[in-house]
Amino acid sequence: MTAYSIERIREQFPILNQQVNNRPLVYLDNAASNQKPNAVVDCISNYYTSYHANIHRGAHHLAQLATEAYENARTIIANHLNAQREEIIFTYGTTDGINLVAQTWGRRNLKAGDRIVISGLEHHSNLVPWQMVAEENGCIIDIIPVLSDGTLDMVVYDQLLEKKPKLVAVNQVSNSLGTVNPIAEMISKAKNVNACVLIDGAQAVSHFEIDVKRMDCDFYVFSGHKIYGPTGIGVLYGKKDILEAMPAWRGGGEMIKSVSYQSFSVNELPYKFEAGTPNIADGIALGQAIEFVNSLGLNAIREHETLLTQTATQRLLEVPGMRLIGTAEEKTSVISFLIDGLHPYDVGTLLDQLGVAVRTGHHCTEPLMHALGIPGTIRASFACYNTLEEVDLFIEAVKKATQMLS
């Protein structure tokens, strides 16, 4: 048995052992949300059946157990990102984290005429919050164009930096094309012009080791459900001095240090940005999900996913009319494609009838699809538990769907 045992891994995901339309489920929608191992599901169940209580201010036994487990998860996440505990803010997900930064740091620091640089690969979650701030404050958004292979035009990026932007907000990995952006270079260049940098890590955390100190970004955001954790939980990392200078956003509960009828004072980090009763169970389970990933090893996961992606990419070229969208040399386990003359939704529907789950549409990157001159794509994305046998089933299904629709 090899060190990376796909059989042992799949045993931890019983949801995969089912049939869809009388065919074995082939789940290839991992870029949208991956499945959860037993350890994560059991963690949530154990919290609710064994020690559920509100956290931090309770003096009783269950409250102390819940508080300890929740804060231990924060420590696990901080260590995973090489951050300080107080720099880890629990959020509802990537979108919530970006909105928090936009509505606090953004509203306070971005003024009329200030420039924001965003890549043309961004998910709507890293575009619309800045559009909202720009509409309110009169700042200007500049877009880094996307080249035909799905990479960013770094020549234009350099030109945009000459305009001295206040903020650069880019994803580490494109959710729709799988392109891995050169963020080390991008962050370094942004720092040279004193720009603040936010990195959307939603598509990166399940593939790469993240070291925010070495990266030197000011903010890093991700969602739990993208790294084998629950939905409704995420993380915002921010440099301590920046977080301390930002105003509080939501009011009430844990974010309060003291309050009178006339005024209030905010709590210390990280609680300053965690108003109300938090998503306790899922926060604890996110820590468990990260421990699961670390038990497999991110390098081993990425090596396995790379094999699947390269094999599937080569096999897809056997399909008549196949057009791959996004062919960057450095990619994660995402394949976006179109088949000449066929609508993505029609292909996706037939694949579902054949037991293969993929995502179709613009993948919340509508401006990117417009820039590429396409309505959307069919997107297959792989995770730690997918197999070469599933790649074969996927290719067979694509071929069959193409024949049926042609």
Provide an overview of this structure:
There is one protein chain. With 406 residues, the protein is α/β, with parallel strands linked by helices. The chain has two domains: 6-29 and 298-405, Aspartate Aminotransferase, domain 1 (Alpha-Beta Complex); 51-295, 3-Layer(aba) Sandwich (Aspartate Aminotransferase, domain 2), CATH 3.40.640.10. Helices cover 41% and strands 17% of the residues. Strands 4-10-9-8-7-5-6 form a seven-stranded mixed sheet, sandwiched between helices. A hairpin with an 8-residue loop joins strand 13 and strand 14. The longest helix has 21 residues, at 61-81. The protein is globular and about 70 Å long. The two termini are 43 Å apart.
> What do we call the CATH topology of the largest domain?
Aspartate Aminotransferase, domain 2
Measure the end-to-end span. Answer: 43 Å
Biggest sheet layout = 7 strands, mixed
| Domain unit count | 2
CATH H-level superfamily of the largest domain: Type I PLP-dependent aspartate aminotransferase-like (Major domain)
How much of the polypeptide forms β-strand, as a percent range? 15-25%
Going by helix content, strand content and strand pairing, the class is: alpha/beta
Number of helices: 14
CATH structural class of the largest domain? Alpha Beta
Q: How much helicity do the residues have?
A: 40-55%
Net shape: globular
List the helices and strands and how they pair.
Elements: H1 6-11, E1 19-20, E2 23-24, E3 26-27, H2 38-50, H3 61-81, E4 88-91, H4 94-109, E5 115-119, H5 128-137, E6 140-144, H6 154-161, E7 167-171, H7 183-192, E8 196-200, H8 212-215, E9 219-223, E10 234-238, H9 240-245, E11 256-259, E12 264-266, H10 280-296, H11 298-316, E13 322-325, E14 334-339, H12 344-353, E15 356-357, E16 359-361, H13 366-372, E17 377-381, H14 388-405
Parallel strand pairs: 3-15, 5-6, 5-7, 7-8, 8-9
Antiparallel strand pairs: 1-2, 4-10, 9-10, 11-12, 13-14, 14-17, 16-17
